[in-house]
Design a protein that fits this description.
The chain starts with a helix and ends with a helix. It has a single domain, classed as Amino acid/polyamine transporter I (Up-down Bundle). Helix 5 crosses helix 17, helix 9 crosses helix 20 and helix 12 packs antiparallel against helix 23. The chain contains 24 helices and two strands. The chain has 549 residues and is an all-alpha fold. Strand 1 and strand 2 form a beta hairpin. It has a two-stranded antiparallel ribbon with strand order 1-2. It is globular.
Length: 549
């Protein structure tokens, strides 16, 4: 679908400048209602969900017309609108219905289906090339154009990806769907690794340079420059959703609330003090842009991941005799109903599947299109190389961290009680380490949430730059910092639901691009593997010449 003539005349054409060789967690965290699958399909049958690509394009056109003022006004306006309790109650039910549909079976099937499709087309690349990908994290030459090295780009993506969803989201999934939900998280991550690979590859393939000389890339660029200019409204739709995600909940409110609540609960720090310190830290780091964020992420992310892994492994060692039974329970309950136990009401296989897949996607963000925004800034000349490095993010996030959280909840048997969310995970940590458990969880949750704020600040910044140019970056940062400051005092249900909606909306244009550009993904993958084979052959020949000499 083409833009109207009057709109084309207003839009400066941004030519792609590719180089020569060229990221839910759910902010709801337990607040979400289970989607009524029957209702979803009934509404579709009645023609109420006629969401075709042309409809998405049309929405993008209207959004683009409103962008000059709307992108700034919408975040602030919604905060004040929902601040009125009556209006929040009036809108909450409607937003919940929209949220249930957006994250209903169609989107989950599209997310997982895209991962399956790419897995087949790439010949199980996430399995066969995983050792190489893990090695590249530390051994990539970083000899291409870019703003940061591949390791820092991965750390920045992990900063946004590894968040409260790894602690609270896993607990919510197991509470709602039983231990079997963890298996479906693994399945979502397995296919999600192929999706994340494709995102990272395309991000480098179609990246450009902004007016400040910084790298600009992500789904909005590979949609416009890969699929073609006629798809620009779809790219605009993604970018608007990205800005709203950064402003609402995922980058601000959900994380800020998690920090102030855990610090107040664990050590009794007043909200005002936590809010002040957090705002100052975020301002100091984010004003410096990507290099500042990447430097901080490169130091904090490895530390926080290692601390959390050591803590959870320690708990599993305390309950070592229960680990085999816990793994058996996960595998068994993935395909059979969970019996009622304690405060748990029992779960069907469908509940386990839905909660596990949904929470897995929320946590590792595969297919949502967030991680490729920072992947584009990596110093590499081979798109496939960065794709492999990006793929490890899903492996680390879900296969390692979420698994450790889930097994901790199962071996301690806290999931059968009345607790939920962060309180459930805290109970498990306390059982493992009665004295220090809650403090270890507090440190982990604070670091997870803080780095998520930093990562999403950059995602939103790149989206706003795509929409309004570099002149909008500083105002964007100022508004973001202001929302961090007030986020500690906002506990509005509607804000979380709205954040969840726009997060899901980001996935739609991104998945369309991944499917449409599958041929490019395959071609770039073959080109990189041919390069590696040639390089290996040259090394062998050089060694033979040396031996003969």
């Amino acid at each position: 679908m083409r833009l109207p003539k009057e709109l084309n005349s207003q839009v400066p054409v941004k030519q792609a400048e590719p180089y020569a060789d060229t990221t839910l967690e759910s902010p709801l965290n337990g607040r979400r209602r289970c989607t009524n699958v029957v209702d979803v399909f009934i509404s579709q049958a009645n023609g109420q969900s006629n969401s075709s690509s042309s409809a998405a394009f049309k929405a993008g056109e209207y959004l683009y017309r409103f962008l000059p003022t709307g992108v700034v006004v919408i975040p602030v306006g919604f905060v004040f609108y929902f601040a009125n309790g009556k209006r929040e109650n009036f809108m909450l039910e409607l937003l919940n219905e929209i949220d249930s549909f957006v994250w209903g079976p169609p989107l989950l099937v599209l997310l997982v289906g895209t991962g399956i499709w790419l897995t087949l087309r790439l010949n199980l690349l996430q399995v066969l090339k995983l050792p190489m990908a893990l090695k590249l994290i530390f051994s990539a030459k970083n000899d291409g154009d870019g703003d940061v090295n591949s390791f820092k780009a991965l750390c920045t993506a992990l900063a946004a990806t590894v968040g409260t969803g790894n602690i609270v989201g896993v607990a919510t999934a197991i509470k709602a769907g039983g231990p079997g939900a963890l298996f479906w998280m693994w399945l979502a991550a397995f296919f999600g690794m192929a999706t994340k690979y494709a995102e990272g590859l395309l991000a480098v393939k179609y990246r450009t340079v902004d007016a400040n000389g910084n790298i600009a890339g992500g789904p909005m660029y590979y949609i416009e420059n890969g699929l073609g200019k006629s798809y620009k409204p779809l790219a605009v739709f993604f970018a608007v959703s990205g800005v709203l995600c950064a402003y609402f909940g995922i980058g601000t409110f959900a994380q800020v609330n998690a920090i102030v609540e855990i610090t107040q609960l664990s050590v009794g720090i007043p909200v005002i003090y936590t809010a002040a310190v957090l705002t100052i830290l975020v301002a100091v780091v984010t004003i410096g842009g990507l290099k500042s964020i990447a430097n901080v992420a490169g130091k904090i992310v490895p530390f926080m991941a290692l601390l959390y892994v050591i803590t959870t492994v320690g708990i599993l060692l305390v309950f070592a005799d229960q680990v085999p039974a816990a793994i058996a329970t996960v595998l068994t309950n993935a395909f059979s109903p969970t019996a009622a136990a304690g405060g748990f009401l029992g779960a069907t296989v469908m509940m386990a599947m839905r909660n596990g897949i949904a929470r897995g996607v929320f946590s590792n963000e595969s297919g949502l299109g967030s991680a490729p925004i920072v992947a584009a800034a990596a110093k590499t000349k081979w798109p496939a190389e960065q794709g492999l490095i990006s793929m490890t993010g899903t492996f680390i996030d879900t296969i390692i961290i979420c698994t450790l959280t889930g097994l901790t909840l199962v071996v301690t048997n806290v999931w059968t009680g009345d607790l939920n969310g962060a309180a459930l995970t805290q109970a498990a940590f306390t059982m493992g380490f009665p004295v220090w458990g809650k403090y270890l969880l507090m440190v982990g949750l604070v670091l997870f949430a803080f780095t998520t704020i930093l990562g999403w600040n950059y995602y939103g910044e790149r989206c706003i730059e795509y929409l309004l140019g570099v002149k909008a970056i500083l105002p964007y940062r100022i508004i973001f910092i202001g929302l961090i400051a007030c986020g500690a005092f906002l506990k509005l249900e509607a804000i979380w639901v709205l954040a969840d909606i726009v997060n899901g909306l980001m996935a739609i244009p991104n998945l369309i691009a991944l499917l449409g550009l599958t041929g490019v993904i395959i071609a770039e993958t073959k080109r990189y593997h041919a390069h590696l084979a040639e390089k290996k052959q040259q090394t062998v020949l050089a060694e033979e010449v040396t031996e003969e000499a």
